[in-house]
Amino acid sequence: LKLKEYANMHTTVHTIELMANILTNLENAARVGLFDSERFGKEIQDLKTIKEREDLSQASRLFLELFFSEHRLLQMVQYAQDPTLELKKLAELIETSANYPDISFDAQTTIVEMIGRVIDDNEEYEKLIDKISEISSLRKSEVEGAIIHFNRAQTLIDKQQYKPVVKHLGHCVQAFMKEGYETELVKTYGYMGIAFYNLELPYSAKAYLVKAASILVKEFFTQGTISHLLITVLWKLCEIELMIGRLVMYLNWRELLFIIAHNGQEIESKEFVEKDILFDGGWACHFAAVDLTRETISVLPDIFARCDMPISENYLKYALGYQESVDEKFVNLITDDWGKLLRQQPIHKQFLNPLNIAEEGQTTISTLAKGCRFTVRYENSVRSQLVAETFLATVETLLATFVTLELVVMSPEIQVEIAPTDEQSEMERGENENQYVFNVNYGTLDGETYWRCFAFFMAYFMSLNTVSSEDVIDLIAQRHEKEKIMDRIIALLELNNAVYNVLGDKFKYSIRQWENANDKTYVCKADTKGETLTDQNPHTEQRGVQTFSISSTMEWWDKAGWTGVCFMYDQRFATPPIVGLAFKNLEAGKRIIHEWKEKIAKGQSSVELHLIRGIDKQHPSWYRACVAPEIPLDHITEGQYIAVMCRKHTMTPNDTSNLDNFERVYSRFGNCQLVAVAIDDQMHVNMNIDFS
């Protein structure tokens, strides 16, 4: 009461702030019945009366408006009301308050962060955080602005809202590289890795976790201290390799994990042992779903025996037909169908990729992002593997935060071949729009060179393989302004150095490097070669859109120069009619037709031809020919959007006689032939048709 009396006489931001703090405490007390709610309401009304005083300073009135806006927000959240409009108002008030030194901007930031703990996914709130961070960066430093984003990311991690986590942490990856912020940088990398992993983007997750491990391993070797966070990061790297089926890299991370865990006694903990057993069982599930006659499989049991992975070791001995060598602890499983039991495990719905055991020579790695499978082929080595992983990580990072229909990838697969060169490193297009060649000079490849090559890929990929709601350049520019997308990508360009810091530059990249000279080869002598499984994972995070296309490479249509359709039939209507797709480049057109023919021969879905009348009131004889993919209903996944790549052409005849006759003959037979025909620049069709 004394403060209230004093505040009425000496009304300043400071005295009002003291009153507001007391009222906040009284409100909390009123909610649990420790203070009269009517009395509290009267006190609030008195504060509103102060706000209406004509002699009140602008700073004091603004502070009261902030207080009431924040109070209304909390009430809206409590009663499950939409806070969007109030958030917009609060954002304007906070931006204005930054110009008043009497109002503590730090205090307002803290209040907004507290409100964020109870507000779920809301775009206006994220904009408010962006604005507060921007003001903090201008008033203090880039690091202070990054801390705002970092705190929000921590809250969102707990809420399992991973896309906005990536957006906020993009503001941190460069800012925290300043001296004195190593702890925040490690946590940023760790949170980024967790977020990407939960978005089913394993290579970007792995890249950021390796960067975190690089800093933590350095501390281990220089200071001798073992961070529990390092153990956690290495376990997560092992988990990622398990989910993408990369056995060789799993063995590398696990070996390092055991070395460090031995030094810190972590290896003796119950949790450590149980997790290792669980992962061992996960690999056994992989082996239960592959062709056991693969030569690589035959060398694994003794490798697993040395690595102390008894479940995988003994399952393979059993499955390959060496039951007599199975440890007695697993004998009871032999009496049942052990393989069937493993194939029924729910982990198959979590695997992101099938088993991938790297050997010497050509190998591939791949990832699924925005419904597109990106596959990189390379001659296996330490350096080429890291270039391939960096490429997939940067692609994942680029596409991570686009919402479903904001950017749609229309190509089901993109293939990239890494080719060593003694010339300058460069990215170039391959044989078609879905293929690229990355010519790499390993001696001169650095972050700047890699960025130039990836920028080339990004430009062509965005223009040829995607459709977007707005101009792609504008889209990327907006993304960088809002979430520092380029900073996220650039942070990955020196991935090789981070890996070298953790594993060294001569880590084992092939399963053959894990063999010993006296290892036994377990050639498959079982009655069955094993049962392979199709992908069981719905990939809900990366398959928001199903794409159906008339051709695997739509660029063929541009080269073929499709100009419409023509009809051929005998005058007696004795045989099915023929529809000719008229191409200026006949050979390119034949390629399109032959692909359909191959699909039909394999029993796969092909295409449909739609002839649509009545498209122009002024020209009733005109019609539209549309070639569209055939979409079987059983191929449609519930809850996903469908994108269709087709081609259409408007036909402008003077009358409908040709179309009428075609429809008459077609209705008689119920089918027709579809062929490619040549047409010249004068629109004359060559009737010499090759029906092969």
How would you characterize the overall build of this protein?
- The chain is an alpha/beta fold and 692 residues long.
- The chain has 4 domains: 1-120, no CATH class; 208-350 and 512-526, no CATH class; 362-509, no CATH class; 545-686, no CATH class.
- 50% of the residues lie in helices and 13% in strands.
- It is built from 26 helices and 16 strands.
- The protein has a 5-stranded mixed beta sheet, covered by helices on one side. Strands 9-10-15-16 form a 4-stranded mixed beta sheet.
- α3 runs antiparallel to α4 and α9 (162-169) runs antiparallel to α10.
- The chain is globular and about 105 Å long.
- The relative contact order is 0.07.
List the helices and strands and how they pair.
Blueprint: H1 2-9, H2 13-31, H3 37-51, H4 58-78, H5 84-97, H6 105-116, H7 123-139, H8 142-159, H9 162-169, H10 182-198, H11 202-223, H12 228-243, H13 247-264, H14 270-287, H15 300-306, H16 310-319, H17 331-334, H18 338-343, E1 362-369, E2 372-379, H19 382-399, E3 407-409, E4 413-420, E5 426-429, E6 435-440, H20 447-464, E7 466-468, H21 472-483, H22 485-490, H23 495-503, E8 545-549, H24 555-560, E9 562-568, E10 578-583, H25 586-601, E11 607-613, E12 623-629, E13 641-645, E14 647-651, H26 657-669, E15 673-679, E16 685-686
Parallel strand pairs: 2-4, 4-6, 8-13, 10-15
Antiparallel strand pairs: 1-2, 3-7, 5-6, 9-10, 11-12, 12-14, 15-16
Helix pairs in contact: 1-2, 2-3, 2-4, 3-4, 4-5, 5-7, 7-8, 8-9, 8-10, 9-10, 10-11, 11-12, 11-19, 11-23, 12-13, 14-16, 15-16
